[in-house]
């Protein structure tokens, strides 16, 4: 049976989201209907809303950092049941495709092609408004109270975990920690530079602390972010605006030749270059996490790579969601991952546009939307 759901719909790029009641069709075979209890707002939602995302399709329901409860399952669904608590995954884990079986990546291919077009695996949508289809987003669309996902795109988690906090593990916090521990595999004693101190960069600092990095350099043009970075374990703080030379030079000088690992958590291609070039000759590795707009490209002198620096990228921190997210939830439960530190604002769905404003003004780390 089709149900009604309150949702924040992005009808067009660069327009405020509109809170309307959409129609949601029941889950088809291999799909699940989830009631979202809470969702974070990530910079990637703002990026897509800005029109810069080459995969952005409108009208759509954004949101990909949610926590919810399974309300119904389609035919053939076996891994979750009604009442289970889940975190939606924008990086599915089917355990059967070439990517999942490779043991080399978390980038599952099972539903990625249709997901990137805003569609369910059968190339249709489950959302509509006034009879017109509304596109899905990142396979999750957590800015709707009810959403439909492929079974392979939900991670079952313990019912004791508070969904209005562990929702942040659906993207930002897992991404930052995973990039450090899975992608870079930072080792004890290493030096680390983190560019951008939003939800992703601060989570990378937690990861660096977990890895027992000896020095964690936090870089942001908004100095109000330094206090939380310090609380989470950063040891040095740099505002590039305080210097009249390239920031990579400043970091190379203060670290006797560069850092062992750097992480770009902004989505700025000039900063990606700086992050690579502040890595130590011979072995320094730089990980791109930030998402840059359509058409933008990175550049550096090839000599930077010839002389041993490594440039990598990381999606969802290299984490295989269905298998590994429960352990992240456990770490949040024990306090090893301090989710409360990230939640600077809580609000209802009606106020969601304010969450975007706060992000753009640099006043929030994460806003959690409660349904
Ligand atoms: P955010 O807006 O909360 O934080 C970005 C931070 O970067 C802010 O503190 C801002 O002041 C700082 N900043 C901006 N310009 C800067 C500059 N020139 N130098 C230094 N700092 C600067 O964003 P977020 O939610 O933390 O997301 C960060 C980026 O990561 C975005 O591009 C987002 O799309 C991307 N992201 C990628 C993945 C992935 O899996 N690869 C996952 C989540 C988010
Ligand atoms: N649609 C974008 C791609 C954006 C992108 O790189 N997304 C990240 C996750 S950001 C979450 O906040 C990602 O996981 N990428 C891997 C993938 O399969 O999308 C564009 O630029 O076209
Ligand atoms: Zn995100």
* Domains (count): 2
Strand content: 15-25%
Average pLDDT reading: 98
Task: State the low-pLDDT regions, or none.
Answer: none
Assign the CATH architecture of the largest domain: Alpha-Beta Complex
The CATH class of the largest domain is Alpha Beta
For this structure, what is the CATH homologous superfamily of the largest domain?
A: Medium-chain alcohol dehydrogenases, catalytic domain
CATH topological fold name of the largest domain: Quinone Oxidoreductase, Chain A, domain 1
The helix fraction, in percent, is 25-40%
Number of strands: 17
| Biggest pleated sheet | 7 strands, mixed
How many helices? The count is 12
Report the order of strands and helices.
EEEHEEHHEEEEHHEHEHEHEHEHEHEHE
Radius of gyration: 20 Å
Q: N-to-C terminal Cα separation, in Å?
A: 22 Å
Overall 3D shape: globular
The structural class is: alpha/beta
Structure ligands: nicotinamide-adenine-dinucleotide, ligand AHE, zinc ion
Features:
Rossmann fold, globular, binds nicotinamide-adenine-dinucleotide, 2 domains, binds ligand AHE, 371 residues, single chain, six-stranded parallel sheet, alpha/beta, 12 helices, Quinone Oxidoreductase, Chain A, domain 1, seven-stranded mixed sheet, binds zinc ion
Can you walk through the features of this model?
It is a single chain. The protein is α/β, with parallel strands linked by helices and 371 residues long. The protein has two domains: 201 residues, Medium-chain alcohol dehydrogenases, catalytic domain (Quinone Oxidoreductase, Chain A, domain 1, Alpha-Beta Complex); 144 residues, NAD(P)-binding Rossmann-like Domain (Rossmann fold), CATH 3.40.50.720. The chain is 26% helix and 24% strand. It is built from twelve helices and 17 strands. Helix 10 links the parallel strand 14 and strand 15. Helix 5 crosses helix 6 and helix 8 packs parallel to helix 9. The longest helix is centred in the last third of the chain and has 14 residues. The two termini are 22 Å apart. The relative contact order is 0.16. The mean pLDDT is 98. The structure holds nicotinamide-adenine-dinucleotide (NAD), ligand AHE and zinc ion. The site of nicotinamide-adenine-dinucleotide has 33 residues, from helix 1, helix 5 and helix 6.
